[in-house]
Amino acid sequence: MVTNSCDGCGRTVSVAGGMENIWTFGEDDGSEGTAMTLELADGTSHLLCYPCLEALPEEPTADDIARLEQVDAETSTLEV
């Protein structure tokens, strides 16, 4: 798995797939990660961990992503 950092909170995340997983099968096939890329209506894309994805509103904007912060290892929140 490839590791990177979340664009919202900065925590280290793993991204499923990639060339290092192309010939693996079964449990270690690279089909699970801790983040996904979210493409916004304005054409920007952001790599976000699942806690950050859950903290976003229904129609997120780049401003919402900029306001994300890590609370602990399992949750994220939007700054007020």
Characteristic terms for this protein:
single chain; 80 residues; alpha+beta; two-stranded antiparallel sheet; 6 strands; 14% helix; Small CPxCG-related zinc finger protein; DUF7561
Give an overview in words.
This is Small CPxCG-related zinc finger protein. This protein is an alpha+beta fold. The protein has one domain. The chain is about 15% helix and about 30% strand. It contains two helices and six strands, in the order E-E-E-E-H-H-E-E. The protein has a two-stranded antiparallel sheet with strand order 1-2. It has a two-stranded antiparallel ribbon with strand order 3-4. It has a two-stranded antiparallel sheet with strand order 5-6. The longest helix is centred in the middle third of the chain and has 6 residues. The termini are far apart. The mean pLDDT is about 80.
